[in-house]
Amino acid sequence: MDYALFWAVLIAVAVFAYVVLDGFDLGVAMLFALFKDPEERDHMVNTVAPVWDGNETWLILGGGGLFAVFPLAYAILMPALYVPIIVMLLGLVFRGVAFEFRFKTTRGKFVWDWSFFLGSLAAAFSQGIMLGAVLQGVKVVDRAYAGGWFDWLTPFTLYCGVSVVIGYIALGSTWLIMKTSGALQQRAYRVARPSVILLLLTIAVASISLPMMREDIAERWFTFPASLGFWTLPTILAIVATYLLRSLRKGKEYRPYLLTLLLFFISFCGFSVSVYPNLIPPDITIWEAAAPENSLKFLFVGGIVLVPIILAYTAYSYWVFRGKVETQDGYH
């Protein structure tokens, strides 16, 4: 069995699960800038209160798995991305504290609302920067990071940061459509339509920019006949985007969120096949970055035991708290 490939897939699944699950509650927090009514904000927070802690489990699994299974990749990426990683973690801390404290005060509630918004914005923007930095490539010499402190800061990474913020807002607004009703739901519809359109534009621009930056990716996407397989992804994405915009126009409640998740999944697949088999583009492959096989076998046992448990309690929590969240339903 190829244990390195197994763990690469598992970590990719964990990263994707974190992005789409924590993405919608980060998006809900960033919507505080547009939804200023205190009761609406409380209602918005109550839609994510039962599940937001569990969503971050996948971030721990992805980061911890990278450290244990691909130590070379961890040793290279950490110094390459120290600044955005620290900003992301500080943002998540501020967001977590604000989530609890905003319900405990009245006079200072606006402070914690702004902390909730700014912490979520910082976390989302930093995650986009890290994605862009990995996609554009990392300088490696003799199996060590050879770049500077701010190599991650480029127009492409800043663009990716903005793109992820837009994507999370689209997730957050479609989540509110699914979980609320009445005036709040209608406001969410009005935010969802332009955010989804902007998300589609950012995906298109990123898809065009990446092959222009990296010759190996351009060759993969534009060399016949292998390119025929790759171009099925943009075709499927266009079909999903059409149905998503139509479902928003027709006032569907559950379909927009599910289709937005599908947009993220297709984009994630596109970026993954663009860099495979490299774990750190453009030179470090999955197998070069992997730990010794004995370590991978040991960790494999833990993985096949723990991951189903995580999946089970995540699915159970979403099932228990399914349905609409009404105004009187509160977090205490």
Number of domains: 1
What's the pLDDT, averaged over the residues? 88
Q: Roughly how much helix do the residues carry, as a percent range?
A: over 70%
**Approximate strand percentage:** under 5%
Main sheet summary: 2 strands, antiparallel
Number of helices: 15
Task: Trace the largest sheet across and list its strands.
Answer: 1-2
CATH class: Mainly Alpha
SS-based structural class?
mainly alpha
Note poorly predicted spans. Answer: none
Shape: globular
| Second CATH tier, the architecture | Up-down Bundle
Number of strand segments: 4
How large is the radius of gyration?
Answer: 20 Å
Report how far the terminal alpha carbons are from each other. 48 Å
**Oligomeric status:** single chain
Outline of this structure?
With 332 residues, the chain is mainly α.
Question: What distinguishing features does this structure have?
Answer:
mainly alpha; globular; single chain; Formate dehydrogenase/DMSO reductase fold
Task: Kindly describe this structure.
By secondary structure, this protein is mainly alpha-helical. The protein has one domain: Formate dehydrogenase/DMSO reductase fold. The protein contains 15 helices and 4 strands. The chain has helices at 3-30, 38-48, 52-55, 57-69, 71-80, 82-101, 109-136, 155-179, 182-213, 215-222, 226-230, 232-249, 255-275, 286-289, 293-320, and strands spanning 140-141, 144-145, 278-280, 284-285. The strands form 2 sheets. Strands 1-2 form a two-stranded antiparallel ribbon. Strands 3-4 form a two-stranded antiparallel sheet. Strand 1 (140-141) and strand 2 form a beta hairpin. The longest helix is centred in the middle third of the chain and has 32 residues, at 182-213.
